[in-house]
Design a protein that fits this description.
By secondary structure, the protein is mostly helical. The protein has one domain. The chain has 13 helices and no strands. It is globular and about 60 Å long.
Length: about 230
């Protein structure tokens, strides 16, 4: 992993912790939490995996899903013993969110992805998914700095900022919402999840939480209190 990758990862991890990733589902927007019951069942069941190898997910078609998977992996690249966006299934989180609580952003994503495709073809004669890592980073940097041409709605910066935010959510929100697979994001930052009880040693510990198990909201719901 080069210095650019390491810097990007470090930024997202610091931002996640500062924004409250280590505060239960702190990165999950109120819109998702408030619509939890609405999302239960059907294609947008929280934590559900859209069919592997299928041409369609809950919202994305095959081409758009591949672009989002590649884009988010460059935002949060994997490294040895350090999970990235693919490991945490960030694509699944965004896909389910756009079919549920984020339905108002469907047109935003459609237009943003179309503009991204046009920009990549204009500058590199290839779609984003066929660019090498260095070229993908150049495209992402152009979006971040608002220098990518051909963007109207959303603007290049708006599209970048939204995808970065949703990547963070998919990495660090409770797995109930479809990302943070196998607690990949929580393990990365040492967050214990929704533990029912912390020992005195846990409460006095100032280091990252490493003791198993890390507990998510689905497990809490299965317990006596959740079944109440």
């Amino acid at each position: 992993m080069d210095k650019h990758d390491a810097s990007r990862r470090a930024f997202l991890v610091r931002a996640a912790v500062g924004a409250g990733a280590a505060a239960s589902a702190g990165l999950v927007p109120d819109a998702i939490a408030q619509n939890h019951e609405q999302m239960m069942g059907g294609a947008s069941t929280p934590g559900a995996q859209h069919p592997t190898g299928s041409e369609h997910g809950a919202f994305f078609n095959h081409t758009d899903a591949a672009t989002i998977a590649a884009f988010t992996e460059r935002l949060m690249p994997s490294a040895p013993d350090k999970p990235g966006a693919r490991d945490a299934d960030v694509l699944n989180y965004i896909d389910l969110a756009l079919a549920g609580a984020y339905t108002d952003l469907q047109d935003f994503y459609r237009r943003g992805l179309a503009q991204l495709e046009a920009y990549c073809r204009a500058t590199h004669n290839e779609p984003f998914t066929r660019l090498n890592a260095e070229q993908q980073d150049e495209v992402i940097t152009s979006l971040e700095n608002g220098k990518a041409t051909g963007f109207t709605y959303p603007s290049a910066q708006e599209f970048f900022n939204t995808l970065r935010t949703h990547t963070m959510e998919g990495m660090f929100a409770d797995p109930l919402y479809g990302g943070n697979k196998d607690f990949a994001g929580w393990r990365l930052v040492g967050f214990p999840g929704a533990q029912a009880i912390f020992s005195p040693t846990d409460l006095q510990n100032t280091q990252a939480f490493t003791r198993a198990p890390i507990v998510g909201l689905q497990e809490v719901a299965k317990g006596p209190m959740g079944r109440g």
